[in-house]
Amino acid sequence: CSSIGKVTMLESFSSVVRVAVETSESQVEVELVPAVEIPTCWPEKAQWPCYLKRWPSQEKVQCIKSLGFDLLARSNYHWHLCFSRAKLMEGPNKDGGCHVKCFRVMRQMKEDAWCAGNKPVITVYHLQTVLFWMCEKYPRTKDWRCFPEAFLRLVQKLHKCVSQRFLKHYFVKNTSLLKHANTSDLDLVASKLAVFLENPIFCLE
């Protein structure tokens, strides 16, 4: 376990404060955002699920709604809904699927090749949202038994969303998670994803 040392503020923009935390092993940069916890309640704006589906199960839906949500400060005057406690992917591989493996590889590729840096235009939450939509579209266990096929489906979906500059929020209707994203940064990520999709063998071997 690393011990925490000096904490230095790097910058402050809008409601976000970015700090550098020195540990015994390395320096880690962290973004701090004001948040309000709303437990045991589900927001009216999040009309989810819209109708019965095979994924997630009704038991999982009720469990997630019972955990509530958070409000994160977007600016000095605006807040947005956050569903980080909605652990849809807990225990998904008990049926032999490769959901978690696909997500971990995609996250590593994002950090190493597609969208690195301290302020990436594509975040882990974006990747989770893509995974949620694909799990809903492909709810059968057999659709997630072949890692190369499942992984490529995820990357293709991500490429489509980034290219169109539109990623539908999984819980809130008529909301795009890329609405305020820098279009030049999105285009750059889209081009990198396109190059990868032309020859993805090196990652899937």
TrEMBL record:
Belongs to the mab-21 family. Residues 12-86 form the Mab-21-like nucleotidyltransferase domain. InterPro entries: Mab-21-like_nuc_Trfase, Mab-21_HhH/H2TH-like, MAB21L/cGLR. Residues 98-193 form the Mab-21-like HhH/H2TH-like domain. This is MB213 protein.
